[in-house]
Amino acid sequence: MSGSTAPSERAFVLGLDGVPWRLIEQWSDEGELPNVARMREEGASGTLESTRPPTTPLAWPSIATGVWPDKHGIYGFQNLSSEYSHEMYTSHDLAQPALWDLLGPSHVGNVPMTYPAREIDGTMVTGMMTPSTDREFTRPPDLQDEIESRIPDYEISLDYHKYGDRLDDFEVAVDEMLAKRRELMRLQMDRADDDWQLFFFVYTAPDRFQHLIWDMDRLLEHYKQLDEILGEVIDYTDDYDADLYVVSDHGFGPIDRLVYVNRILEQEGYLFRREDDGTRGALASLGISRDAITSALNRVGITEETLVQSLPRQLVDSVAEQIPGDHALYDVDFDRTVAFVHDTGNCYINDSGRFDDGVVSPSEVPQVKADIKTALESATDADGEQLLEVFDGDELFPTDEDAPDLVVCGRETYESRSTVSDEVLGDTGVYDASHRSEGIVLCRGPSIDAGATLRGARVVDIAPTLLHGIGEPVPKNADGRVLFDAFAAKTSPATTKVERSAVAQVDAGGDVDEDFDDVEDRLKGLGYME
């Protein structure tokens, strides 16, 4: 269907969270995924390079906006303050207009980092980071009533920690979640009718499934379900002569060991734990730790989540600081610490210009950062293999002086963690696999070149390519480029100069006063948080 001289006026983004190129390439070549094969034959395809670190909260906003985190403003799941406390990132932190702010009517479903729902021309159902379906999670609000009526027990995500030793049950639960998400997509299609310019819908199930199950037979069965969904979306976009982009925010692969980066910093003299004196010392001498308290409460039916929900967060933080444990914030002595890792691989120099109790003067930061980068890159396993990749924050995020100083990622089958452990390396526990930087991009539409190979595509290239492909201007400050290799020769997008438009930062409103404890619990269950 490629080669039309007139561009499409509509575009559909089908997000498949965490799908790696090598699996869809192999299984579509073998005939197991006929609709993926059709996308490759009738459109353009290739690998898609993720953000650094290659994680959901950074990558999906980059796909939706066409800019890196230093411009869209989201660096992880939790935003770190100058007082060493944190709060969850929300859609209010997204500073760059997303595709659904630029196009309309737009219908947005289950996209991570969209909670709370913003007022847009169209419909929105928020995704990952939504506290629960007890909150308002749709625009317009009455869409929520329709979801509750048509999709009973619709849920944003699963409590993954409950399935660590129940993988058969987990597989059933993921299948049920996938089916409900598909029904949501159909509901939004019905709502949209023919009144839409953009559809942006994400399935997070493959990412969740792969974290706990990295078994090729079971994975293939899951991917076959995704392929069926893709077939439905192909038919839908054909009905409207729309461009279709199938993208993953990152890839996936097996992991063998966890690397506790803060332990390396501690060994190298850059990080110090809080002394077990005063209340902490008394509790420690009695064998009372955060883990011990949590276990005891669980035995009598009181969960950590129940306590956190019942008490003000400030009080919880204050108490947590007094109980010995291994938390990257609660258990670090910032009066002596030079550097620490927070969230998913973000390393911060304890800069006195940035943090209230900083011990490093701003003039010393460049040298300290260089020394720490060398120390982390020098960490090896018993075979002399390097454990970590370390990236300079100034190079990754040049426009934001408050960006992380370094970004630390595990190499190959090593996964980095921020817990303050007594050992550098640890077992992966229930986790089979985790993120890789190489995801997928498949596109098909009236002006897309059949069988074309996309090379060097990055997550920030999706939005500019989509906009140009449907004849819309690209924001002047976009970091991504238009992937002209996707377009057939002599078509309008292939022969037309990219039009640029000025954009203003999004003002989404004030702080979000919400209880995110359920979200934190789900993230812990996937190994994303401590």
UniProtKB/TrEMBL annotation:
Signal sequence range: none
Identification of the protein by name: Alkaline phosphatase family protein
A family per Pfam: Phosphodiest
InterPro entries: Alkaline_phosphatase_core_sf, Phosphodiest/P_Trfase
Highest rank taxon of the organism: Archaea
A GO MF term: hydrolase activity
